Amino acid sequence: MRYVDEYRDPAIAMALAGQINRASTKPWVLMEVCGGQTHTLMRYGIGDLIADSVELVHGPGCPVCVTPLEMIDQAIAIAARPDTIFTSYGDMLRVPGSRRDLFQARSEGADVRIVYSPMDAVQIARANPSREVVFFGVGFETTAPANAMAVWQARRQCLTNFSMLVSHVLVPPAMRLILESPGNRVQGFIAPGHVCAIMGFREYEVLASEFHVPIVVGGFEPVDLLEAISMLVVQLESGRAEVENQYSRSVDYLGNRPAQNIMREVFTVTDRKWRGIGEIGSSGLRLRDEFSTFDAEKVFRLEPLHVEEPRECISALVLQGRCKPVQCAAFGTTCTPMHPLGAPMVSAEGACAAWYQYKRHV
C-alpha cells in the first residue's frame, strides 16, 4: 500500500511509463471508461509518455454527457412551472438542451437550485409543502444509492411534494455495446473505480470472458492509471483476458452491499437512451412501481420526446472512443465550454472539455 503522495510521485510515474514502453511489442488500444480518469490522463500528459506503446481512447463514462437531450428538455419544462422548485447538481445547469439549458431557464425566472446532495432536495420539499420539489437524478451506479435513499426517506416522511426525474445509467451494458460494435478497436478497459467501489467488479467477468478482453479496475491518480495500464499491457502481451483490481484500497470484489441493497429496493433495471448513442437495452434504472408517486415523469405526465442532436456535434463518436475531440470541426470554434454544442464540452468529466483545457494548443 502506497502513501497518498506516492500516487502522484513523478519518479514512480516515469518508472511505470518505462515499464509499459518496454513491455509493449506493439501499440495497444485501451479505453478509460470514467470521465474523471480522462481528466487525470490529460492533465498529466500520460498518453504522451506512452504514445508509442498505447493509444488511449475515451469512453462513455461521463454521466452528464450521456444524459439524453430529451431529458434535459423535460427538466427545463418542469423547472419552468411556477409551482415547482427544480434541484440539481451544478454540473447539469450548463448542459445544452435543444434550445437552452437550465442556467438560462433560471435566468428567465425558473426556481432552479443547486444542491450538494439529494437529501438537500428532500429538506427543501419538507420546508416548502405548497410547492413541488424535483431532484434531477443523474449518474451511474456511483450516485444511485444516495438517490435511492432520498426517495426512500421521502416515502418514510410521507412527503407528497417531492419527486425525482431519473436518468440513471449503468456501465457494463455500455461497454458491451462498444465491444459488439463492428468498428470496435478497444483491446482493454480501465474500469471506473468509483462505480466499482459501489458494485464491485464481479459483473465485468462476463465481458472479459465473452469478448476475451482484459479489464482492470483503476483509480484516479496518475500512478493509479499507469499501474492499471501496465497491468492491461501485461495481460495483452501474455494473451490473458481477466478482470484485475488495481484500486484495491477502495474497491473489493463484491462492492458495497448495503448500497446495492438500497438501490435494488428503490430502483429496477430498464432500457435507457444515451445521449448521441441511442437506446441500450437494460442499461439504466427507473423507480420501482411501489415508488411511482415519486417519479417526476409520472407526476408531471411528461410526454415522450424525440430531439435531434446538432449535426456538427460528433460527441457520440467521442463517447464511443471512435474519434478524438480535436477531430471535430466545431472543437474550439463553434463549440467551447462557454458555448457548448454537446455535453462533453461543458461537463467537468467530459472528454471534449479535457482536451480543450489541456491540449487545444498542441
Structural features, described:
This protein has 362 residues and is α/β, with parallel strands linked by helices. Among the domains are: 4-64 and 171-245, HypD, alpha/beta domain 1 (Rossmann fold, 3-Layer(aba) Sandwich); 315-358, no CATH class. The chain has helices at residues 10-23, 35-43, 46-49, 63-66, 69-79, 102-107, 118-127, 144-156, 171-180, 193-199, 205-211, 222-238, 257-266, 296-299, 315-319, 343-346, 351-358, and strands at 28-34, 54-61, 84-88, 112-114, 132-139, 162-169, 188-192, 215-218, 243-245, 267-274, 278-287. The strands form 2 sheets. The chain has a 6-stranded mixed beta sheet, sandwiched between helices. A 5-stranded parallel beta sheet has the order 2-1-7-8-9. Strand 10 (267-274) and strand 11 form a beta hairpin. Helix 7 (118-127) packs parallel to helix 8 and helix 8 (144-156) packs across helix 13. It is globular and about 65 Å long.
Major sheet characteristics? 6 strands, mixed
Order of helices and strands: HEHHEHHEHEHEHEHEHHEHEHEEHHHH
Radius of gyration over alpha carbons?
A: 21 Å
Estimate the strand proportion: 15-25%
β-strand number = 11
CATH classification class of the domain at 4-64 and 171-245: Alpha Beta
Note the quaternary state here: single chain
Distance from first to last alpha carbon: 36 Å
Question: Which overall shape is indicated by the principal axes computed on the Cα atoms?
Answer: globular
Which class best fits the helix and strand makeup? alpha/beta
What is the residue-averaged pLDDT? 95
Biggest sheet: strand arrangement: 4-3-5-6-11-10
Low-confidence runs:
none
Number of helices: 17
Topology-level CATH name of the domain at 4-64 and 171-245: Rossmann fold
CATH superfamily of the domain at 4-64 and 171-245: HypD, alpha/beta domain 1
Task: Tell me roughly what share of residues is in helical segments.
Answer: 25-40%
CATH architecture of the domain at 4-64 and 171-245: 3-Layer(aba) Sandwich
